Amino acid sequence: MATVDVKNIKSETVSQIELADVIFSITPDAGVLHEMVRMQLACKRAGTASVKHRSDVKGSGKKLFRQKGTGRARRGDIKDPLLRGGGSIFGPDPKSYSYKMPKKKKRLALKMALSAKLQENELIVLNEFELDQIKTKKFVDVLNAFNIKNALIVTDKTNETLELSSRNVPDVKVMRFEGLNVYDILKHRCLILLEPSVKAIEGRLLV
Fold this sequence. Notes:
Helix content: 25-40%
CATH superfamily of the largest domain: Ribosomal protein L4/L1
CATH topology of the largest domain: Ribosomal Protein L4, Chain: A
Number of domains: 2
Number of helices: 7
Oligomer: single chain
Number of strands: 6
Strand content: 15-25%
Structural class: alpha/beta
């Protein structure tokens, strides 16, 4: 098992923790990670782009003028796509871009993302991240102690003080271990895990 130092918010080593090899010591596969991120981004797409087709435009269905003998182009009703205010021919309609991956593959991708952070020395384990009050400056001071400006912080339970103190800091996100995902791990340069959340993550992925 890989052994990692557990630090406090002053960047001082207070203990050590062993990380499960089946989660934190897997060789990352760029193809699997790419596929997972692509799926997550596809599921985020709104898919709400829409236009009015000929049948959706408000207007009379009466033929504008007779078919022949006028010397003009043959017209149907005023909703003709070639006329101003007419319907759109090939415009987009609302659709869902989301799709699913096998559960085992999703779990493997998450393990690979965690392993990549450990192998690149971008994984930090804290014993706790408790602030006595909601204060952005105090939160930033903790990040400065680690020389970090871009980080994903994973907690084991709801920590409103921490979440509110960090919400105005750019490139920083706080989430509970249940919401941990490949996209957010790879998007942020540093991954900070609270010590209790490590066991929670291992319990989730060792099923």
